[in-house]
């Protein structure tokens, strides 16, 4: 099937797995991507930038297809290391980031400069 979505993301079917806390690991993302959709690793589920980098590497071992990383921007007194997470995403060459929660505007320039496609999910 050929659609604007499949062409934009380099996938076979216009199916995008959203980020899912507690289950958004490499196994699920790779399975969705290998089936022709766009799989997604949930960034905040990993806990730290280093663990996210490891999960991205594991996903790359399981698939050569495109996949995304989800970042949910939540108001917090002690926010996650968003700059560190974004650095790992960029350094790993992840082609797509799905954002959710607050407006991701402050992080968009770095992602776009790296050529990363950004999807913002409203839930």
Walk me through the structure:
The chain is an alpha/beta fold. The protein has a single domain (4-121), classed as TIM Barrel, CATH 3.20.20.70. It contains 6 helices and 4 strands; from the N terminus they run H-H-E-H-H-E-H-E-H-E. It has a 4-stranded parallel β-sheet with strand order 1-2-3-4. Helix 6 links the parallel strand 3 and strand 4 (117-121). Helix 4 runs parallel beside helix 5 (82-92). 32% of the residues are buried. The model has no long low-confidence stretch (mean pLDDT 97).
Features:
single chain; 123 residues; alpha/beta; TIM Barrel; 4-stranded parallel beta sheet; 4 strands
Set down the secondary structure blueprint.
Elements: H1 4-9, H2 26-34, E1 39-42, H3 43-46, H4 49-62, E2 67-73, H5 82-92, E3 96-101, H6 108-113, E4 117-121
Parallel strand pairs: 1-2, 2-3, 3-4
Helix pairs in contact: 2-4, 4-5
How would you briefly describe this protein structure?
With 123 residues, the chain is α/β, with parallel strands linked by helices.
- Give the overall shape, derived from the CA principal axes: globular
Query: Gyration radius, to the nearest Å?
Result: 13 Å
CATH-derived topology? TIM Barrel
Order of helices and strands: HHEHHEHEHE
Structural class, by secondary structure, is: alpha/beta
- CATH homology group: Aldolase class I
């Amino acid at each position: 099937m050929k659609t604007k979505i499949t062409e934009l993301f380099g996938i076979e079917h216009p199916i995008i797995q959203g980020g899912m806390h507690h289950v958004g690991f490499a196994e699920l993302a790779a399975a969705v991507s290998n089936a022709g959709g766009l799989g997604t690793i949930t960034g905040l589920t990993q806990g730290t930038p280093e663990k996210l980098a490891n999960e991205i590497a594991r996903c790359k071992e399981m698939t050569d297809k495109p996949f995304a990383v989800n970042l949910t921007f939540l108001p917090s007194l002690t926010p996650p290391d968003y700059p560190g997470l974004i650095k790992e995403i960029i350094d790993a060459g992840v082609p797509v980031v799905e954002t959710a929660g607050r407006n991701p505007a402050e992080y968009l320039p770095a992602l776009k400069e790296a050529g990363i496609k950004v999807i913002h999910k409203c839930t």
